[in-house]
Amino acid sequence: MNSIVKRCSALAILAIAMLLPQANHIKTSEQGLYLIADFEGCQLTPYQCAAGVWTQGVGHTAGVIPGKSITPVQAAENLLEDIRRVESRMAVCLPQQMPQATYDAVMAFAFNVGTGAACRSTLVYFLNHGQWQQACDQLPRWIYVNGVKNRGLERRRAAERELCLKGLSTPNTTSFPGKEQLAQ
Asked: How many structural domains compose the chain?
């Protein structure tokens, strides 16, 4: 196995991603993408994250082959596809309208914990009942990896909560293809 670690700048990958045509097909704003990229970091060579999952690029886990590096453009394409997949899966369990910043925070959260766990969370329950503050306040509970408190997750959840709450103070409510629209 190649022992050389190929790191990359998550912000550079994000910049490449924003230039790709696929960027027009996601609802997460640049602010939300920055939050995800900043906390995920970027590494072109596969590595095992704190939870033991093979990962590369910006938090990409699907089809990662240990020892096989990817290019920065592949990392950007994977990031956009991963975001699109998270948005699509979360649309099944989220309300159709919410503030953009709150949406971004929820997408960043779901990107990290997985859409199944996110959809089953109390956070999503509160979102579906219009209890925005209570939903945002759920984020700091998600700071454990295999039962152990993780400082990186504490920082990440604090940033997600801050963005989530920012959405409550801005009147910009955006429509998303949520569960109401999917039911039609």
From this structure: 1
